[in-house]
## 1
Amino acid sequence: MIYFDRIEVVNMLAPTAVIDIVKNYTADYDKTLIFNKIHHELNQFCSVHTLQEVYIELFDIIDENLKQALQKDLNVMAPGLTIQAVRVTKPKIPEAIRRNFELMEAEKTKLLISAQRQKVVEKEAETERKKAIIEAEKIAQVAEIHYQQKVMEKETEKKISEIEDAAFLAREKAKADAEYYTSQKAAESNRLKLTPQYLELKKYQAIATNSKIYFGNNIPNMFVDSGAFKQSNEFRTAEDPGLNQETGTNIREKDTGRTAKTSSDAKKAK
């Protein structure tokens, strides 16, 4: 049912073991020790595996299994003879079975392609999801940075306002303290100045700076507003034409007094 067209075995005989092996197994030692055993080892391998495993799934390890099985027996029967390599060609199977295997392989290939396509789609979806997550995280981080920036700006403005308020309060307090100190010192200075001698000096200074001098028998007992005094003089002048508007005295009385003074001077001259 299954047929291996060609099996190649490469072996090497150590020089020290040539005499013993040729003496025991003749010059065709490889036929007795190797090639006659290949059929048996292949039957052993195929008996424990299915046709699908031998033809497809485990075909790549047949040569390695043959090499290990042959070398194991040679180590006991012919020390010094080693197997270098084993090459097994693809076995032949009936045509109907081969077509079934080919169809099965085609379906398996389609399944693998579909699975790979699904993996690609899943990978693309995973990539898109990760991209969306990264983009969302970036937007959230940017928003967080802007929020922190605004908070810091508000805190800075608050601190600046507090500093300005404190500076303004300090200036106003210093100004008020200075005004209070100035007023206090001025009050103390005025209190010290209020002596009888200083008041007497101020009285004479006020008299010296007064530009109005009153003549007549009766000097006013108090100072009044000049506008009110002028209106009073005009009123009195209108009632009595003989009243002097500037001095407030009666012209007739002044003339009489001057006439009397003139007569007295004339008597003294005689």
## 2
Amino acid sequence: MDVCLLVDVFKKHFPAAIDSFQDAVKCLAEFACNAAFPDTSMEAIRLIRHCATYVSERPQALKEYTSDDMNVAPGDRVWVRGWFPILFELSCIINRCKLDVRTRGLTVMFEIIKSYGQTFEKHWWQDLFRIIFRIFDNMKLPEQQTEKSEWMTTTCNHALYAICDVFTQFYEVLNHVLLDDIFAQLHWCVQQDNEQLARSGTNCLENVVILTGHKFSPLVWDKTCGCMLAIFKTTIPHALLAWRPTGMEEESSEKGSVSVI
């Protein structure tokens, strides 16, 4: 089956095909995850990007859509039937595919978020970031150390900068619902053994402060300073500060014994 056929159907008959939209996007994601056909993978991701355009251009069709098994408010149908399937399947591509395909999937996912995020409701963002933060989930990271290091250096690193770009772009909405989660994620990155990801965590925190600091309330500044302090404490080389050369340790012990006598 030609993957282009799916998108052609939505282009010409979107209202009539809404009931199959989720299955079609999942089908495109499965094409994207087929490692045997890399060109088809890239084409499938491109077509998922087109699906986002159709959702953006025809939200009313999704709002007016009704189904016996769908007890969702009309305003949320655009999210449940449209945006969520697209973004969720892109996250699956990111978590399942090899580097080149998952990098393209990650780029497209954040392109969609940046392009259409102004239409998202506040509670949609919470669902969305639950999906995004799965990229950093320790339980889902590769078990092999080499693969895990590559994942952190490439995918996690790329995702972290993209998250902060989105946060600064939509700060007025996101600071009320996701500030604590963003700071927690930056702190997590700094705690990792991967030096590049740890550096990126501090760089991203700096970027957030520089770009949105003029909008911070006193409470947000308190949380920001708390995050900086936590990062500082985490990265202090306590073992190095407490280290003494072997000779000095023995000398200190002897002095202690003499003092006691």
## 3
Amino acid sequence: SKAPGDMGWKPPFFTGGTAEQKSRRLAVELANGRLAMMAIIGMFFQDGLTGSAWGDWANYTDSPLRAFENELGVQAPVGYFDPLGMSNDGDAEVFYRRRCTEIKNGRVAMIAAMGYIVPEWYRFPGYCSPTDALKFSDIPNGLAALGKVPAGGLGQWVAFCGFLELYAAKQDQADPPGLLSGKDEGFGRVEFGRLGVFRGDRSKDDEAKKRGLNSELANGRLAMMAIIGMFFQDGLTGSAWGDWSNYTDSPLRAF
């Protein structure tokens, strides 16, 4: 039987050569073929959607992504980034919910990333738990802290987060994503101003506000990637700022 791809035709100038040269040529053919398959599908799509073989995005006026291309967070160099096509249906309500979630997760990730960094340089004086004679300086940095902080302390974290979610820092659907407020009862509606200051002033300059909100989204996205990386290196090496040499079980060590 013939080798895969052998059609019995020898292209000019490539009939001879050593076994090594033939192997290299076949590898090049496979690589170029894979690239060409991706390229031609991309050309078909851009031709079909824009009406031109080398189409201009401006010609694709029916794109559902145009509903969101002017939203906050659409930044150079990638523009509106949705590689999974989750917004292809153009559903504004779903986009609003996802944007609120993105902002919230980004804010938590920024705090978490700072929580990994600051204890390396500064810790509160005194006791975290006087009843357990546990000082702040006795608590290790990173994931190991979860095994050191008393259950009562962890419960306080959960209770505080629950208080914010249910009462003090809710997302009103009538407000822009990320603008949190308290309930209207009691002392009336409470909003958080710039940098999350309670009852703080909000920026009156529209351009400065837009720049600040874009920065928050960009920094939140970076922080989400950063904190996941910190968790992985902490879990694999046993240290918040782990040394690769400590990860002796890595399957990559075989190579």
## 4
Amino acid sequence: WYQRRVRGFALFSLVVVVAAQPPPSGPTVTVSDQATSQGAVLSFTFTVEAKQGALDASKVHLAKASKEHKFTDARFTLDVSGESKLTVTVSGDDVTCDDQSGYIAYYDRIPPPPKQGPPAGSFMLKVAGCEPLRLAGGPPAGPKITVKNQETSQGASLSFSFELESRKDKLDTTKVHLVKASQDHKTSDVRFTVKVSADKTGKKVTGEVTADNITCDDQSGYLVYYDKLPPPPSSHMRFRRQPKPPPGGFFINVKGCSHNQI
């Protein structure tokens, strides 16, 4: 019995020691943000360094990130040299706006996303003259949209306005849209009348919205957007339960209607 207890305790101690050890970390990837111009030749280097032992050059990868945080192989050529410290030369011809994006250099496998900050090995490639990148958590590209939540009652007439304002470019009134949102983040055209007009500068647009005979079916989330519909939020929460609606998002509340209808 004593020997079994000792062996059991020794096994338990071994499990505790193994469990207490942190998972092995991979090599250190060092890379910096890059800036270039359209039509230029791209060339830069990054390093991959192991704490001990030699590295396998075939396990060094460079991937391009999308706004949805999906990755695809970068179109650039990688030339890898070294053993325990690898130097990677990245080259590409005829850079275009499509090359402007976030990238990640990694060894063997793409690392899981960190709780805070960008992942190790990530960097930005900016191309002069291209539309500014929209980064996760950053302000959305395009004009500023100002609209307020609305409250009305059944059978009433609804009338309100919203605004879009651009800092530098003139706005196209035909690219201003208002849609109705559903629980699954799908959108549909609104039944309301929307009249859009621009000021003398063309940088500020006002939308006037009117509707008669409001019903419970009109109670919903809505979205004002410019040019292209923005991607749906990553949260699976319903529109009305989001702590903060997307830019241009607002809610029409109809008195006497059930919120379960949303």
